[in-house]
Amino acid sequence: MTAILVLAKAPEPGRVKTRLCPPLCPQQAAELAAAALLDTITAATTVPGARPVVVLTGLLHRAARGSELAAALREVAVLPQRGDGLGERIAAAHCDAAALFPGHPTLQIGMDTPQLDASRLAAAAAALARPGVDAVLGPAVDGGWWGLGLRRPADAALVAAVPTSCADTGERTGTALRSAGLTVSLLPELSDVDTAADALAVAAAAPGTRFAAAVTALPPGLLAHGMPTGPAERRPA
């Protein structure tokens, strides 16, 4: 059994997906974030034998699709995020989930990859369960990472000081784990949703999701206005 951690922020307008504004307004960006979070919770709850845990910050009553999210969260364990920075919150999430489900590995994802489904998460959990594997790391296209699995959840402390939102966050995370003697297996690379181009690409890759429906519901061509017209540049995680 694997505890699947969803590190999430309540999709309050103005506090989530701010890199989508413009072309979106804060409410529209929050609607996309809410759809992505709902898709992610659904995926986590449908992995056979897994125990989903949402580690949440923010005010749900101010969130887009708040009532729908509240209903979804009643079906899973919910823990509060704690720690000053993202690295500390990641380490604390693994620690707190281990206290909830002692003796079991943890697999952490975020709410930026709504294309993740139960089969992909089950494959990640299976990779973590292979003999000799201490950790799995899912690299993101932007240089960050979308998933971190640990056979021993306490090992999350190794990445607490790794700088986040950098173009080499994923590489640094892997280095921190390997430098401590852990054997790390890489998961398939995925794109998370930060920009308008990301949103369009992920919606196209996962057409049956709530996220894709939310993108389709936007005014035609709106997201295209937020896409770069010059040469592509590598962006931070």
TrEMBL record:
Superkingdom in the source lineage: Bacteria
The organism of origin for this protein: Pseudonocardia xinjiangensis
InterPro entries: Nucleotide-diphossugar_trans, Trfase_1_rSAM/seldom-assoc
SUPFAM superfamilies found in the cross-reference section: Nucleotide-diphospho-sugar transferases (SSF53448)
Name the record gives this protein: DUF2064 domain-containing protein
